[in-house]
Amino acid sequence: MRATHLRWIAASAVLLAGVVGCTTADPEPVPPPPATSAAPTPTVEPVQVTIAAAGDILPHNPVNRSAIRYAQGSDASYDYRPMFADIAPVLSAADVAICHLETAISRDNTSLSVPRSLSFNSPRELATALADAGYDGCEFASNHMWDRGLRGLAATIEVAEEAGLTMAGPRADAATSGEPAMHEVGPATVAHLAYTYTILNEWGPSTTVPDDAPWLARSLWPVAGVGGILKDAKAAREDGADFVVVSMHWGTEYVAEPTEDQRRIARELLKSGEVDLILGAHVHVIQPCETINGRHVIYGMGNSLSNQSPQTSSSGSLPPATQEGMIAQVTLRRDAQGVVTSEFTYHPTRVDLQGHVIRLATKESHPQTYARTVATVESLGEGVCDSTPAS
Fold this sequence. Notes:
Number of helices: 8
Order of helices and strands: HEHHEEEHEHEEEHEHEEEEEEEHE
Number of strands: 17
Radius of gyration: 28 Å
CATH topology: Purple Acid Phosphatase, chain A, domain 2
CATH class: Alpha Beta
């Protein structure tokens, strides 16, 4: 603009000299400086996607015995499908449904979980049941991901993918380490990343990585840190993701209140604008939610499928909430200006220990579970989380 103005002044001076030296000459008309306008606001295609997610899938041995009974009279050895029958319509209604695996899965149903052990390996029929229930993908960023070592991790991913589940989180080879699971939903693409606090089932956040799988450090949030997670999220967006979902294995077992680490990490991830939703797992009870930068973090979704309950613990020491979980339904929207908003509803759930069927818990069917779940989700205070119980 300044250069144009100077040229206009110079042209005017020449014309003025012509008028003084030769008053009979007709001066050439001088064009005005070009008009300027504000740069147009960049636009993107508006997109929307609804994501369903649930808590821990942890088939203790009594759960597996129920699956054996359901399989009687069939060609299968185990059948977990009846356990998911009540919640399958909710999962299937979502654009993307995500599960959290808290167990390895065997290729050939060998080296399975044994009673009174904290090392888990489940029959391959579990993967088929998860897919049949409406899950599109799972993640295995868990303190149990190394229960059968590298071979167990590879088997879990292989069996799950053969069943049609897209797997996020730790990978069994260095070449694919850090890659997200990508879900195509019409015009929208959802990237799913997952991180755990430990690989070797240590009590608290750990930086220990197995010698034979050093690439797994990328799946450890105490190693990767917020910076590493954001780097992965940005890479996912560069690969075409419209939304980025991050699953976090974190928190203190059986404690509903999120830790300082949980809240700090959630703030830093969601305020960045690179992450659109955080799904928490590990503590085996419901934890609250929080809305940050228009996006949600659900600190803990409880147990979806397990045998945990005060009735099943030897000393009765497990809290009642271990028998409970939720199905979170989060609708993410991006408008033409690129602004992302989030809407969160949830279905409280409860495991019926007679057959280990996951029940939708309503005010009428399971009033205590419903009230406890709602109170916990809202426990950070009024206005901290925009959320609505589904029933």
